[in-house]
Design goal:
251 residues; alpha/beta; 15% strand; globular; binds 2-phosphoglycolic acid
């Protein structure tokens, strides 16, 4: 299984800035790599980024992901974007990011439906799970993550599971510059793998697991060195073409 590096641009970059970033990444990553690179722009620039990648012959180098999706195919949901609209624009969708859970009240039940909606329309979900600082301090980190996973994955079948990527992102390490120690990540991934194996048996071995949270060009190698880590979800550093390209080239 090849590694996956996801750049989550969050609510940054207008059309012109997004184009500049893509052109620079394209120059700094001159040929397709063994790693799969997924760029996740905001909805407004998704189409522009897709077309630009196509015109730069970057289709081999970059895939596109959305940062969220609504669980319904259509309807009176002002401001939302459905999986039907994303089909053909994005291959991946970030689902259940902690910023969506915290700022927009996204529940695990809603996340489970979003994962199912993605699979209904052949989009590949990148499911984010992770504990907050309080939960870690109270020794509840593993319980929190396993509880999230058991609900979030409850609406899909065993065979669809292979199309899901899981990103372990401790909330206290996101956008804070405070990164998790590799042995903390290793232990959590061991627990996640154990849970997946108990639930889904051998099929679970095909699920990619990423680490995310203040990943940058200085620390990425220490996470990639962990045997259970299949890639990275990069936020802040993905807006910097030099940092993101050097992570992709170094993996
Ligand atoms: P960060 O964000 O790399 O800026 O911590 C990671 C994420 O939110 O996925």
């Amino acid at each position: 299984m090849n590694s996956l590096i996801v750049g989550n641009w969050k609510m940054h970059l207008n059309t012109a800035d997004a184009e500049t970033l893509v052109r620079r990444l394209d120059m700094h990553i001159p040929k397709p790599l063994n790693v799969e690179i997924v760029l996740c722009p905001n909805f407004v620039v998704l189409d522009t980024v897709k077309k630009l990648i196509g015109s730069l012959n970057g289709k081999e180098k970059f895939n596109i992901g959305a940062q969220n999706v609504n669980q319904n195919d259509e309807g009176a949901f002002t401001g939302e974007v459905s999986p039907v609209m994303l089909k053909g624009l994005a291959q991946y969708v970030i689902v259940g990011h902690s910023e969506r859970r915290i700022h927009f009240g996204e529940t695990d039940d809603a996340i489970a439906q979003k994962i199912a909606a993605c699979r209904r329309h052949k989009l590949k979900p990148i499911l984010c799970v992770g504990e907050n600082l309080q939960e870690r301090k109270e020794g509840l980190a593993t319980r929190t993550v396993i509880d999230q996973l058991s609900v979030d994955l409850s609406e899909i079948t065993k065979s669809e599971l292979k199309k899901v990527t899981i990103a372990y992102e401790p909330v206290w390490a996101i956008g804070t510059g405070e990164f998790a120690k590799p042995d903390q990540v290793e232990e959590m991934l061991r627990q996640i793998k154990l849970f997946l194996h108990e639930q889904y048996g051998e099929d679970s071995k095909e699920i990619r697991i990423l680490y995310g949270g203040s990943v940058d060009e200085q620390n990425y190698a220490s996470y990639m060195a962990l045997s259970d880590v299949n890639g990275l979800l990069v936020g802040g550093a993905s807006l910097n073409y030099k940092a993101f390209a050097s992570i992709c080239l170094g993996v």
